[in-house]
Amino acid sequence: MVSLRPLAYATMTRSLPSDTEFYLKHFEGLDLAGETFTSRTFESCTFVRCSLTESVFDRCKFIECTFRSCDLSNARLSASKYQAVSFDECKLLGVDWTRAEWPRYAAPGKLAFRKSNISYSNFFGLDLQETVLEECKAHSVDFREGNFAKSNFTYTDFRDSLFNKTQLIGVDFSEAMHYLINVQENPVRGGRFTRSESFGLLHGLDIELVD
């Protein structure tokens, strides 16, 4: 029989313990804005209503963690690793995900965002297949040269976001809006799009639409 370690709680504390490894921890109400964390490992941890704005994560690891109603805007991800991490109803404005450390081999499903604001973030050139980006605000996000094959982009607002040489094969854009995708430069084979928003796929084509 597998023995699981008990779930531990650190409720309404204003700083993390000095431990370097955390397993099955629940952190709630942490105010850690602007702090620096070095070589910390978080596995199966939950963060709820935590302020992590402008925090620095230097060579940290997040494995199967969940963030709920947290603010990570302008957080710096220096060589940190993320595996099966989800963000629900979070703010992640201005995060440069290219600064994190990603495996050379494809490991689908590394990130999931639901009902979150990831505007002004950078995913340039990243291989993030099967990413979940559901019911999110994604204004002015850089997706250029990334691989997001088989991702779920449903109900997300992509106003002013950039797609160029982006792999979008099999991506579900159902009920997504305000995307501008040149299908000659961005493969979308097997994708799903809502008819009323599909005019965004004509971006960059030398055509004129008339009534």
Please give a quick description of this structure:
The chain has strands at residues 8-11, 21-23, 25-28, 36-38, 41-43, 46-48, 56-58, 61-63, 66-68, 81-83, 85-88, 111-114, 132-134, 172-173, 192-193.
CATH topology of the largest domain: Pectate Lyase C-like
Which residue ranges are poorly predicted, with pLDDT under 50 across at least 5 consecutive positions? 1-13, 205-210
- In the sheet with the most strands, the strands line up as 1-3-6-9-11-12-13
Helix content range of the residues, please?
A: under 10%
Strand residue content: 15-25%
Task: Report the C-alpha radius of gyration, rounded.
Answer: 18 Å
Average of the residue pLDDT scores: 88
Please give the largest β-sheet. Answer: 7 strands, parallel
Q: Which CATH class of the largest domain?
A: Mainly Beta
Count of beta strands: 15
**Helix and strand element order:** EEEEEEEEEEEEEEE
CATH architecture of the largest domain: 3 Solenoid
